[in-house]
Design a protein that fits this description.
The structure is a single chain. By secondary structure, the chain is α/β, with parallel strands linked by helices. It is 31% helix and 26% strand. The strands form five sheets. It has a six-stranded parallel beta sheet with strand order 2-1-5-6-7-8, sandwiched between helices. A six-stranded parallel beta sheet has the order 10-9-15-16-17-18, sandwiched between helices. Helix 1 crosses helix 9. It is globular and about 60 Å long. It binds ribose-5-phosphate.
Length: 302
């Protein structure tokens, strides 16, 4: 029997995964020493297969704790360890943009491949590579998508929304969400100057029908994989507002919304701010855990 191991900061999601798979779950306990080190305590008597479920936002401490957990599990005789990390950290630094910069994606990917037999994640930020196995050199590095969950969620809320992607990379998600419903969609162009300074230029054509797009009086949904500072979404909202839409909503897979990102979007008049539960956040409105459970069921039977 496989056991799911969860951590306090991601327990509701790990419990949901256990429920979907009808598997038992136990918690890994963490104790923070005054000097910042962590004591990691695993349950006794682990089975041969475990699934560790923890998202890797705020990754620096979590990576160390995960490695200690995986190593201690091996010491107890565990033979197969799957890491379920709906948000996978360090995927954005995939080249050295300046001399001397470490290519974190490769370094962290290699590290994970050494400790885990398989890794399952949701929409990692793969910009210049196509396959997660190029970052995590492990046969079983699996990318799943939030598209279906987003699409199903939006379908319950709107009849004919217009979907907007704030940059070229978002086209993959926006297209997958809009086309099954024949919703109009468009992709903007983004220029990033720094962590907090971006420009978004809006495109006025509907890519579904290749015709002109008019946002006036329509429900507009901006879709992105990650909201960090929220500046990308803010700039998209500013452009879209000029066309007097009926409503503007934003929906993202991985919600960081650091500092005053939520307040800034709210101040701009955004009607809804939604995210998946890949990262615990007050904007969480739908779950990607069922998508992961489906994949694990397939793995179990193959
Ligand atoms: C980058 O290309 C991603 O898809 C997101 O657009 C980006 O991470 C969002 O960052 P921020 O919220 O800081 O603008």
């Amino acid at each position: 029997m496989t056991l799911i191991l969860g951590f306090e900061d991601y327990l509701p999601q790990a419990e949901k995964l256990a429920l979907c798979l009808s598997l038992p779950i136990k918690q890994v306990n963490l104790h923070q020493f005054p000097d910042g080190e962590t004591k990691v305590t695993l349950p006794e008597k682990l089975p041969k297969k475990v699934i560790i479920c923890r998202s890797l936002n705020q990754p620096n401490d979590k990576l160390i704790e995960l490695i200690i957990t995986a190593s201690a599990a091996r010491d107890q005789g565990v033979e197969h360890i799957t890491l379920v990390a709906p948000y996978l950290c360090y995927m954005r630094q995939d080249i050295a943009f300046n001399i001397g910069e470490a290519i974190s994606q490769k370094i962290i990917g290699k590290l994970l491949s050494e400790y885990f037999d398989s890794v399952i994640t949701i929409d990692p930020h793969l910009h210049r590579i196509k396959n997660l196995t190029e970052a995590i050199p492990n046969k079983a590095a699996i990318t799943l998508h939030a598209n279906h969950a987003i699409s199903a969620f939006l379908q319950q809320k709107f009849t004919q929304p217009i979907i907007i992607g704030p940059d070229e990379e978002s086209e993959q998600w926006v297209k997958a969400i809009a086309t099954p419903h024949q919703w109009q969609y468009s992709i903007a162009t983004k220029q990033r100057y720094s962590d907090t300074k971006v420009d978004v230029s809006f495109s006025e054509s509907d890519l579904n029908t290749n015709t002109a797009l008019n946002l006036t009086g329509h429900d507009i949904i901006i879709v992105d994989d990650i909201a960090s500072t929220g500046k990308t979404l803010e700039q998209a909202v500013i452009q879209i507002k000029q066309q007097n839409p009926k409503s503007i909503s934003v929906i993202v897979t991985h919600a960081f919304f650091v500092d005053s990102a939520i307040e800034n979007l709210t101040r701009l008049g955004v009607n809804n701010i939604w995210s998946s539960d890949s990262i615990p956040h007050s904007s969480n409105a739908f779950s990607i855990i069922d998508t992961i459970a489906t994949q694990l069921k397939i793995d179990e039977t193959s």
